[in-house]
Structure formats: C-alpha cells, structure tokens
Design a protein that fits this description.
Helix content: 25-40%
Largest sheet: 7 strands, parallel
CATH topology: Rossmann fold
Distance between the termini: 38 Å
Strand content: 5-15%
Order of helices and strands: EHEEHEHEHEHHEHHH
CATH architecture: 3-Layer(aba) Sandwich
Radius of gyration: 18 Å
Number of strands: 7
CATH class: Alpha Beta
Structural class: alpha/beta
Length: 273
C-alpha cells in the first residue's frame, strides 16, 4: 500500500469476540480502530470504552444482521476449534459460518475476516510447501468444516462482492508450548496486522493467507500475505515456553502437517499425493 490506511475510522464487529482468540485480537485492535461490536454468548469482563456487546450466537441471523449495520468489516473467529461430533461441527462451523456471511451481506458489510485453520490442509506432508491455492486436504472433521467456510467466502465474493481475507491460523495459543508450535504459532500482534490488511487492502477479494509469525511457516508459501504488506513483528522462538512438549510422537503426527489432528484415527501407512 502506498499510504497508511485510516484504521482509526474503522467500525468493526467481531463474532466470537468473547473467545480466546477473539479476546486476544480485540485487545490489539481496540486502540487502533473507532469501535468494535462484540458478538458472543457471554459478555466479556474487559470491554473497552469503544466496545459494545451483543449477546448472540451464529444461529441468530437477524440479531447478527442488526449488529452488523453500519460496520466496515466483520471478523469471524467463532466456532468449535477442535474435533467434535459431525452434527455439532456442521451446526456450528458450517451452518454458523454461512449465517455470518448471510447476515453480513444483508447488512451491506463490504469485508469479512475469516478465521480459518491450517487443518484445512493438514494432510499434506511436512516436506511439501503449500500455498493458498493448493488443493484442500483436511485432516479431520474440524479441518473439513474450515474447507467449507473458505468456499463460502469465495461464493460470497463471486456472487455478492463481499471481500474476505481468509486467514489459515496456525496456532494462536498464548505462547508456543510444543515443538510443532514453533512452526505454526502466530502472535496476537501479527494476527491483528493481517486483520487490518484484510479490512483495508484494495487487492483483497477472496484471498487466502497463512497466520504465522516470523521463524515459522516453512511448510507454507505465504508470498500472497507478503505482497499485501505483511511483515511479522514477532519471532516465534522469542515467545516460546522454556520447555517444549511433543503433541504426538506417532509416525503420522510427525509426517503430516496437521500433527495430532492428522494422526487421530489414522489407519494404515503414510500416504503422499
């Protein structure tokens, strides 16, 4: 970008703003933007002066639509963040995300930041570099639901012109605590940077990038994010716990990018395609 966007004028809504990732992101955004509408099932205890809370879940399209009126962008960080029964995954992550996009469309919101996941491509081997346009290879039902959400983002751009930055988040925990997290962790500051790029950059359409801080991401081609101006401010190793654990020592967990998600229930040998 040739000039610094006026972030201080942005009026935003964040779905899942009471959750762990949403809360960490809010704290970075609050001093930079005009206002944030926080949507969730529980009211955060730490609302800032420029934040308001709307009690809603993703089944309530009308409530979300009303909350989205007049905002410049919606940040979608809600959903089940792990493996769960198919019925729950479909109801929350699949139908819920569709409802978020439909509410945004009805309210005339021009942009959505979609919190996707590296588990949408978790069945790629760790020796394979994956880009945002590589074929999806989910490593479980959770990853499969993220594939759906990414396709929803594409549909709503093609059909309705709603722009999305799809952020395949690696690991957004408080700090890297596992060996695998040294490859995939993203700090709140870097996630915030990607979010602001997605909300303002003119070249975003239905654009997929990887959410990872400096020192990681060797499995991923994140050149699209770089082209959009992303320069990670945090180095993963600088934030790592003193002692790192190993999530899963199985052959599948080591071979596939999805780690323990790919290894869970994996049958037979290692398959590379």
């Amino acid at each position: 970008m040739t000039e610094t966007p006026a972030y201080e004028t942005l009026k935003l809504a964040i779905v899942g703003g009471s959750g762990r990732v949403g809360t960490a992101l809010r704290k970075k955004l609050v001093p930079l933007v005009h206002s944030i509408v926080v949507l969730g099932r529980s009211r955060p205890e730490d609302l800032a002066a420029n934040e308001t809370f709307v009690e809603a879940d993703m089944s309530e399209v009308d409530t979300m639509r009303a909350a989205f009126e007049g905002v410049d962008g919606v940040i979608h960080m809600a959903g089940i963040p792990k493996e769960a029964p198919l019925e729950d995954i479909v109801q929350v992550n699949v139908i819920g995300t569709n409802n978020v996009y439909e509410a945004a469309r009805l309210a005339g919101v021009p942009r959505v930041i979609l919190g996707s996941s590296n588990h949408a491509i978790g069945y790629y081997p760790t020796d394979t570099v994956v880009s945002g346009t590589s074929q999806m290879r989910p490593d479980g039902l959770y990853g499969l639901s993220k594939c759906w959400t990414e396709l929803v983002a594409g549909l709503y751009y093609d059909k309705y012109g709603v722009r999305s930055l799809i952020i395949r988040i690696g690991n957004a925990g408080k700090q890297p605590k596992t060996v695998r997290s040294l490859e995939v962790w993203v700090s709140p500051a870097d996630l915030c940077q990607l979010t602001l790029i997605g909300l303002t950059h003119p070249d975003v359409d239905a654009t997929t990038v990887f959410g990872v801080s400096a020192g990681g991401g060797s499995w991923w081609d994140n050149s699209v994010a770089t082209k959009l101006g992303y320069v990670p401010s945090d180095v993963i190793a600088d934030h790592a716990a003193p002692e790192l654990s190993v999530e899963d020592e199985s052959e599948a967990a080591t071979f596939y990018q999805g780690g323990r998600f790919a290894a869970a229930g994996h049958v037979g040998g290692l398959r590379k395609r």
